Amino acid sequence: MTVKQALVWAKEELKVACERPQFEAELLLAWHLGQERSYLITHEADRVDNLEIFQQLIQRRAKHEPYEYIVGSASFYDIHLDVEAGVLIPRPETEMLIDVTAGIIQKEHITRIAEIGVGSGAISIVLARKFPQLHIIATDICEAPLRVAGKNIGTFGLERQITLRKSNLIDEVLEPLELVVSNPPYIAEDFVLASNVADYEPKEALFGGRVGDELLKQIILDVKQRGIRFLACEMGYDQKEPLQDFVNQIGVKYINFFKDLAGLDRGFVIEF
Ligand SMILES: C[S@@+](CC[C@H](N)C(=O)[O-])C[C@H]1O[C@@H](n2cnc3c(N)ncnc32)[C@H](O)[C@@H]1O
Questions:
Q1: Is 158 found in the same domain as 53?
Q2: Are 196 and 263 in a shared domain?
Q3: Which of 133, 76, 126 is nearest to 101 (CA)?
Q4: Per-block average pLDDT, block size 10, for the chain (272 residues)?
């Protein structure tokens, strides 16, 4: 099969699973060949080496497996991170949480923070690259994220700035902290997710409890009880009201909510 024929075949295979089957077919073929997408245009008549392997990649994508798990890499902020099954694929919405957190770190000259739920390391790695004086203790309750985050931290040479620790929330973090940042699981147990998420991404990274905001509320309580000054979290688009009520009950200095680029409520900063 030539490059041109392989693309025609792949586009047909992907048309149910993908919104942009032609684009994804090109991405996967380019990745398979170890080339840029533009290479495909100038080499339409070339034969595709190891065609069966390419066909297997397309079959995986046709079954809704996320592109990032197939190629083992996700682009986030200004970097690429290794990802694999068991580790959440970092989302563009989370870039907003980083910018908000970076604003506080800069304004308050903060140097000691923790991240709850490190996943691939996306948040901690971008923050550590922005602030070379920053020390981060990054926790996760699962093994796969800790292993993959460790690999990504190594890729960027950030071992001296980011310490990984297996912990429920910040239970095992006894060091003094000025700020906690987290993109915790915040989806309600019965929420119906698209197949590419529900069938492939780790449940521990998605579901926050029956209502969804249980873990967020526990994080707010823990950070307040520990006397840490700031907390910055991502949340679900429909969680502003219950979280506002919750902090009104427990008492905080202020809570500021922020929106994502789609204009949806997406997170908050609390000063205790
Ligand atoms: C939504 S993912 C976020 C991953 C990454 N920070 C990001 O933004 O891409 C949530 C992460 O929290 C971890 N997690 C879930 N419950 C936890 C808990 N009780 N304590 C610590 N980490 C937890 C999950 O394993 C998962 O890696």
A1: no
A2: yes
A3: 126
A4: 97 96 97 96 95 97 96 97 97 96 98 98 98 98 98 98 98 98 95 90 92 97 98 97 98 97 96 98
